[in-house]
Each structure stands twice: as structure tokens, then as C-alpha cells.
Design a protein that fits this description.
single chain; mainly alpha; 20 helices; about 5% strand
């Protein structure tokens, strides 16, 4: 494919600062305001196709009408075990409405109707326009197929993101004039699934000649391939076979998915995809490094590329991944994401088994290793240390945050996270409501109890940082300008999708084989049975539970868990039906309740809490005897641990107990655990909401949320569209919706 450029000024600087893949990234410009003659030239066609990429590729903005979740604490993340804080989907005090704007159901159907690029069907219209233009142009068919294959993929991608929320939606295949008479009703979910699969089949066939001999290379790396199309096909087939759409557990859906995905795996492999592995995997370093390969990454089946340009300078050439700046602690210039204690306590132990205290997956064999919640980092799955950040663990970066604030730690290459806290009010240490705590190393009030570390560009893992660090940015922006890729579909998902459909089709041996591949990359060995229990090949429910648990761990903070919870109806097991639902909605497969069948503790009725690590009371100090309720200070130099008058220690003594993941873990972790027990206590901190009288509130996901209704705005602008069953129809006086996502 010929590479063309639409940005001239600054291009040399871009290429000098970033990888070769940025040449492709720079092509993604708005090139849609052109005449049809451009389709007679390959350069014109490529410009329009690059425009489709610009409109449709996932980004790091979190869940919205335009993008999938990137793993942030957005509406998706806060509906799962990953984050605390009620999203609109699990808030027990506010039921989402399709009649009102306040507490209104999120609109993933239209988006911003006034902006064609931001509107869902605006993007589809643009895609249809490109398909029409290419087909009517004068290029030879081989060249047309090269570009049409990419565009058909993105049309399927857009429709997949609609169907997973709404079931059936209007299928628009052609560009229509903006005339009220041009009305398209909602198609059945089955028709939409078939349409998506048809587009993906076209994409896979058209791109086969170009991508099944190792995939794209050079400046074309990052474009979708035959393997990308087949991987999305697998995700769609899995969705269709899952309990959300398959209430009777129709075995033909599982069998079809298994046969198709088994056949497709060889082709996906031929496109150059596979589990990312290196020759030096230390404490899960391969698991961490897979997110930091800027070009020709075998793991990245569907990927968005970025660059590390720190300033636009008037040019539209800055394409940064914002994840690094969002997860890094405040004393490095970042923001920090706080992980829930629920997920921390649920992660596997070092033997691969779930902690016995978790009580979440009762059909999974609990670990024989004791779990001490006071020191959660002892004896854990290697991925644990690459997912979470605790006090006393290195988290190196290439920069010097003291240039932003002289009180910040200065040596990024040897940065250690010390986010333990102390209190300023006596007897508030155990109060989950208290905000009078301050964290070490100038974090003070800008701290998290446990940090999300997943996907971070740790200098100990990747010595060639993908970001530009601008400590003294005069614009006040966070300093990490990152070119780390965003992987929407990893090869690990391809394997776990196959595992799930294999299990659903009764091929548990095949399912276990895929689990073993994932566990091997994580660091488990065949001698230890990859940390898997022995009955997975004979017990379908246990096998499916193991797969869902593996997905939860492997894909933590990647924006995948909410979809899994909805697919498997893990909020209530499918026991409840929304108002007006027909008898065909009743779950008759899986014993009538997926949670019971899986042995999974349903999410409805649970709470997620935070944790913090606080200095032991021996460090309490009352500097003013006349104010005995006041203890300790609130400034960067008030850390009681480091003050001799508080029975403190030196900074070097503290830093000497830190864990370096580049070295063997066992002794280091034991030393740090002993240090915790002598100096820190684990405190419960407020996670999910409380009532105005401070009564505990618990997650409540209403059964109608499994299929979203059209928002009030979408209904007003689409008066002829049926509302989804379970949701009130604004255009018909608030009567119940009539569209059935399960009707074929």
C-alpha cells in the first residue's frame, strides 16, 4: 500500500521523535469534504479510508457514545469489581430513565446528533459513502478490495458497538438524503448479527492477500487485517451464544461459534498474531511489556497507535495516549486511579487459585496458600504485581518530578511508591468517612489507597520509555506525553473467546488448552498444572467459571469486564425480568440462573470498598499538649515515619525494604511484609455510596439494563423507532416499549 501524507509541516519532527508507525497515524486526517473524482485515484481513496480510521479507532477517553471503555473509572468500570463508586448502572438510589434527562439512560445510540463525526450513525454514513465511492470509482478491483476490506471492518465495528447495548438497531447500508421520509426501522438482533458477520467475512476475504503472510509492516502497521476481522467475528459469535441473547442455551450457537473460531485461529496466526513473549520473563514482565510494543506487536490484534509529541505548535499532529498520565501518582505529575479492595482481594494466589476468603467463585478450588489481607501482596499471581501499585514497590519512570514541585521525589529512575498515610485528628484512623489523612512523599491529599498500575510504561520493564516527560510544562498539563499503543483486542482475548465457546459446546479439553496458554505466559508451569484445578475437563460449570475468572484477571482495567458481566447476567443471574418482558425472556438454560450455575456470587447486593495503609498508632504524636485531639501535620515534611521524635526511621532505611520486580520476589516480599506488620495497618476506606444517614448502600443493576432503551433525546429525534421492552416510550405517553431484542 502506498503511503501518503496530508501533513507537511512538522512531519520531519514527528518521524524523528517517534516510531515508523506514526507515518500511518499522521494519515488519519479529516478528508471527507471532497468530490467523487478522488475515488479514481489510489491516493484519494487512501485518504478517505484513513479518515474512517480517524473517526472510528478506539481512544483513551473512557466509555462514551463514541468509544469503548479503556479501563478507566467510567460508567463501565464503576459497574464492576474494578472500581468503587456507583455508576448510573448500579446506583440503588437512582433508576435510569428513558423519559427524563435527569438520571437519563446513557445515549450510545446517537451521540451528538449535531456533529456527524461524533454521531454514531454519522460515522456509519461516512463509511457507507466511502464504500459507495470506492465501488463506483475506476480503480481496478484488486486495489478496491484492499481498501474496501478495511472499511467493511469498521462498519461491522460500529454496528457491533450498537448491538451489544441495544440488540437490534436500524441497518443502514447506503447514504440517504437528510429527508424525514427516509426512515429505517430497527431490525432484529439476528439480522444485525448476520449483517455484522457478513461485513467481517468480506473484510477478511478482501484483506487476505495482503495480510495473511505476517500482517502489515512499516508505515502500514496498525491497519486492520484479516486476523482483526476474524477476531471481531469471534467476539460477535461469542456475544450471540452468551446467555444475554441465548436464554435457552441453544447449543447450535455454541457449536457454530466453536467450529468457526477454531478454523479462524490458524488464519489469525498467519497474520502474525500470537501471545507476546520474550526470552526473559521475570515476575510477569512479559505481561506488562505486551502493552508497550510500539510496532509489530504480536499481541495487538486491533490497536490504536499514538505518538509522544508534547506540543501541537499549531499543527494537528499531537496524538497522545493519556493512560500514563492518568495512572501515575500525583508526585510524579500524574493523577492516579484507585483500585477497589474487592478486586485486590479476589486476584489469584501464587498457586493460581482464588483466595479462600474471596467467596466469589464457589466452584473454583480455593488456594492452599493463606491470604493475609493485611499484606495483600504476599504470594500472589505474577500479574498481580503488574496490575496494582502498593506502598513499597518500585514504579520507575524517565523523568524528574521535583522540577514540577521541589518537594516531590526527584529520581524517577529509582522512584518508589510510598503512599501510606497518617491522620491529623486523633481516633480517626479507623473512620472510613474521615478525609483528614495525608500521604507520604508529598502525595498528601492527592493519593490513592491502592493504585491501578496496569498498562503503565514502567521503566523497569521498558528501558526505552514511549513517553516524552515535560516536567515544567507551562500549560499545566500532566507531563507524560505517551506513544504507548491502545490494544482493543489482544491475542489473549482470541484464545479466551475460543475457550469460552469450546466450553459452551462441550469441548472442555480445548477450553482448558487455551487457559493453559494464557497461564503459561503469566508464568505458571506444566509441572504445576498451570495453577488450574483438575476437574475443568469434566465439569462444564467449573470450566466456564475458570474461564470467566481468567478473563477477569487477564483483562482487568482494559474495559472488558462490564461486557462479560452483562453477557453472563452476573448482576442477578437472569432471575429477574424487566416490566413487560415476554415469557421468551425467561432464562431456561443454565438451570434458570447463571450465577447459581457458575457458583458466582451475584453482584447485586454487594459493595466495593477501598483500602489504605496507615501508619501504626505508635507514630501518633501530639506536638501541642493543649490540643490533644490534633496529631501530626499536613505538609510534605510532616511524615511521622521519618521524624525521630515520632519514633521514626531514616528515608534510606525505609527505601531499603522496597520491592524491585526485576529481582526474585520471595525474600523481598517477606521483608516488606514484616515491615508492614511493624509499621502499617490496613484500613477500610469508603468505597461505594452511603445514604444521607450514612447507611450502607449496595449495588443494584435493574434487569432492564441488560438491554438499553433509547434515551429521551434519541426518541424525540427518531419518532418512528420502537422503544426497547422494559423502557418507557416517550413518544407514546410513557407506555412500555415494544421492541424485543430477543425476537428473531
Amino acid at each position: 500500500m502506498k503511503s501518503i501524507k496530508y501533513i507537511i509541516l512538522g512531519l520531519a519532527a514527528v518521524m524523528g521523535a517517534t516510531s515508523c508507525s506514526d507515518a500511518f497515524l499522521q494519515d488519519k486526517k479529516n478528508y471527507d469534504n471532497t468530490n467523487t473524482d478522488l475515488y479514481n485515484y489510489e491516493s484519494g481513496v487512501q485518504g478517505r479510508v484513513n479518515d474512517i480510521y480517524a473517526w472510528c479507532l478506539p481512544v483513551t477517553n473512557g466509555l462514551s457514545w463514541k468509544y469503548t471503555s479503556d479501563g478507566s473509572a467510567d460508567e463501565a468500570g464503576k459497574s464492576t469489581e474494578e472500581y468503587c463508586g456507583f455508576s448510573g448502572f448500579v446506583n440503588p438510589e437512582h433508576e435510569l430513565s428513558s423519559m427524563e434527562n435527569e438520571n437519563g439512560v446513557p445515549d450510545y445510540f446517537m451521540g451528538q446528533k449535531a456533529n456527524i463525526q461524533e454521531a454514531v450513525y454519522g460515522r456509519i454514513r461516512n463509511i457507507n459513502d466511502v464504500i459507495k465511492g470506492i465501488n463506483e470509482g475506476t480503480l481496478d478491483q484488486k486495489t478496491k478490495d484492499l481498501y474496501l476490506g478495511q472499511v467493511y471492518f469498521f462498519r461491522a465495528w460500529c454496528y457491533y458497538n450498537l448491538v451489544r447495548w441495544y440488540g437490534g438497531v436500524p441497518i443502514v447500508k447506503e447514504v440517504s438524503a437528510p429527508d424525514p421520509q427516509n426512515f429505517t426501522p430497527r431490525s432484529s438482533t439476528k439480522a444485525c448479527i448476520d449483517f455484522i458477520l457478513s461485513d467481517l467475512k468480506k473484510a477478511a476475504e478482501m484483506l487476505s492477500e495482503y495480510t495473511t503472510k505476517g500482517g502489515w509492516s512499516g508505515s502500514d502497521y496498525g491497519r486492520v487485517t484479516t486476523g482483526t476481522a476474524l477476531a471481531l467475528k469471534g467476539r460477535v459469535l461469542l456475544l450471540w451464544a452468551s446467555p444475554l441473547f441465548n436464554r435457552a442455551n441453544d447449543q447450535s450457537r455454541w457449536q457454530t461459534a466453536y467450529e468457526e473460531m477454531s478454523k479462524d485461529l490458524e488464519v489469525i496466526d498467519a497474520c502474525g498474531y500470537g501471545l507476546y513473549k520474550s526470552s526473559n520473563n521475570v515476575n510477569g514482565s512479559d505481561f506488562a511489556m505486551q502493552f508497550l510494543v510500539p510496532a509489530k506487536n504480536t499481541e495487538a490484534v486491533f490497536v490504536t497507535l499514538f505518538n509522544n509529541i508534547a506540543s501541537n505548535d499549531g499543527l494537528d499532529n499531537q496524538k497522545n495516549n493519556s493512560w500514563e498520565r492518568s495512572v501515575r501518582p500525583a508526585n510524579t505529575g500524574g493523577g492516579g486511579k484507585g483500585a477497589s479492595a474487592m478486586l485486590v482481594d479476589m486476584f489469584p494466589m501464587a498457586d493460581g487459585k482464588i483466595p479462600a476468603s474471596a467467596g466469589t467463585y464457589t466452584k473454583l478450588t480455593p488456594s492452599a496458600l493463606d491470604y493475609d489481607a493485611k499484606v495483600p501482596f504476599v504470594n500472589r499471581d505474577p500479574r498481580f504485581y503488574r496490575t496494582f501499585g502498593f506502598p513499597g514497590f518500585r514504579w520507575a519512570y524517565n523523568g524528574d518530578a521535583s522540577l514540577r514541585d521541589s518537594h516531590n521525589p526527584s529520581d524517577g529512575k529509582n522512584y518508589i511508591l510510598w503512599n501510606y498515610v497518617w491522620y491529623t485528628e486523633k481516633n480517626e484512623q479507623g473512620d472510613e468517612f474521615s478525609g483528614n489523612s495525608y500521604a507520604a512523599d508529598n502525595l498528601l491529599s492527592s493519593k490513592q489507597g491502592v493504585y491501578v498500575k496496569k498498562k503503565s510504561d514502567d521503566l523497569d520493564v521498558n528501558p526505552s520509555a514511549l513517553y516524552t516527560y515535560v516536567a515544567n510544562d507551562t500549560k499545566g498539563s500532566a507531563p507524560f506525553y505517551s506513544a504507548a499503543p491502545l490494544i482493543e483486542m489482544r491475542y489473549a482475548e482470541v484464545l479466551l473467546n475460543l475457550a469460552e465457546v469450546a466450553c459452551g459446546a462441550g469441548k472442555m479439553d480445548v477450553a482448558v488448552e487455551q487457559l493453559q496458554k494464557i497461564r503459561e505466559r503469566a508464568g505458571y508451569t506444566a509441572e504445576a498444572e498451570y495453577g488450574l484445578q483438575s476437574n475443568l475437563s469434566s465439569d462444564q460449570a467449573a470450566c466456564m467459571s475458570a474461564i470467566l475468572y481468567e478473563r477477569q484477571i487477564e483483562f482487568a482495567y482494559e474495559g472488558k469486564r462490564f461486557d462479560d458481566c452483562r453477557r453472563w447476567m452476573l448482576y442477578d443471574g437472569g432471575a429477574e425480568l424487566p416490566e413487560g418482558a415476554p415469557s421468551t425472556w425467561k432464562l431456561t438454560g443454565w438451570g434458570g440462573n447463571t450465577c447459581t450455575w457458575l457458583g458466582f456470587k451475584q453482584l447485586n447486593g454487594q459493595r466495593r470498598e477501598n483500602m489504605e495503609f496507615c501508619l501504626d498508632h505508635k507514630f501518633d504524636y501530639v506536638p501541642d499538649p493543649s490540643k490533644p485531639d490534633k496529631i501530626n501535620g499536613t505538609t510534605w515534611d510532616a511524615d511521622p515515619l521519618l521524624k525521630t521524635e515520632y519514633q521514626g526511621i531514616t528515608k534510606k532505611e525505609r527505601d531499603d525494604v522496597a520491592v524491585d520486580l526485576r529481582q526474585p520476589l520471595a525474600t523481598q516480599v517477606d521483608v516488606l511484609a514484616d515491615w508492614y506488620k511493624n509499621n502499617l495497618v490496613r484500613n477500610l476506606k469508603r468505597g461505594d455510596g452511603y445514604s444521607s444517614s450514612k447507611d450502607l448502600l449496595y449495588m443494584k443493576f435493574y434487569p432492564k439494563y441488560y438491554f438499553l432503551g433509547l434515551s429521551r433525546g434519541a426518541q424525540v429525534d427518531n419518532k418512528g423507532l420502537q422503544q426497547t421492552i422494559g423502557w418507557k416510550d416517550y413518544n407514546n405517553g410513557g407506555t412500555n416499549g415494544t421492541f424485543d431484542p430477543l425476537a428473531e
